[in-house]
């Protein structure tokens, strides 16, 4: 129950999140701990579980070189670390020999990757993405506002999600990549 929204503007990834925490009884809490953060050069925003996010905050991802293909890196080096981290941290659900986790976005070098609950990696053509309960509202706003300034665009996307989804609440946090 959340909204994580990210977009690329002038080669920089911007990513925002709400602050809602919703338990299994649908009780809502506004949390102080962030759903969007940096782990080294990776800008990460998570849904599904604060436990999963906390494990991702402390994961040790392999270093990549400037000539590394990012999509290959994400599939072959990043995801195996995520898989081990979540499994070792007791977060991975295994049912009929199939692992399930939560969803999250990863921004790196002006690109946004979505890691789904089955640990497959995706990248949209649009230059923006969103996950969580409020993702459809956020995607619609980002689609409709391509000329808007990135911070304003993300905040509007999250406000729209908050308006129409019970599990999305401000305050909103927006972080962005610092370019070399």
State the CATH architecture: 4-Layer Sandwich
Could you tell me the strand content as a percent range? 25-35%
Count the DSSP helices: 4
CATH topology name: Glutamine Phosphoribosylpyrophosphate, subunit 1, domain 1
* Cα-to-Cα separation, first versus last residue: 34 Å
Using only C-alpha atoms, the radius of gyration works out to 16 Å
Averaged pLDDT, please? 95
Instruction: Provide the succession of SSEs.
Output: EEEEEEHHEEEEEEHHE
CATH class: Alpha Beta
Strand arrangement within the widest β-sheet reads 5-6-9-10-11
What does this structure look like?
- The structure is a single chain.
- 29% of the residues lie in helices and 29% in strands.
- With 180 residues, the protein is an alpha+beta fold.
- It has one domain: 4-Layer Sandwich (Glutamine Phosphoribosylpyrophosphate, subunit 1, domain 1).
- The radius of gyration is 16 Å and the shape is globular.
- The chain starts with a strand and ends with a strand.
- The model has no long low-confidence stretch (mean pLDDT 95).
């Amino acid at each position: 129950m959340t909204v994580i929204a990210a977009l690329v503007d002038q080669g920089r990834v911007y990513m925002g999140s709400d602050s809602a925490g919703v338990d299994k009884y649908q009780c809502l809490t506004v949390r102080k701990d962030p759903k969007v953060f940096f782990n080294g050069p990776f800008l990460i925003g998570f849904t599904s579980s604060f436990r999963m996010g906390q494990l991702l905050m402390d994961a040790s991802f392999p270093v990549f070189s400037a000539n590394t293909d990012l999509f290959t890196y994400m599939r072959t080096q990043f995801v195996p670390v995520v898989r081990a981290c979540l499994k070792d941290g007791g977060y991975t659900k295994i049912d009929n020999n199939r692992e399930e986790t939560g969803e999250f976005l990863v921004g790196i070098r002006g690109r946004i990757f979505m890691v789904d609950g089955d640990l497959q990696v995706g990248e949209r053509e649009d230059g923006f993405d969103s996950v969580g309960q409020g993702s459809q509202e956020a995607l619609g706003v980002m689609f409709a506002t391509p000329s808007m300034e990135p911070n304003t665009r993300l905040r509007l996307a999250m406000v729209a999600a908050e308006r129409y989804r019970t599990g999305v609440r401000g305050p909103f946090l927006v972080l962005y990549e610092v370019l070399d």
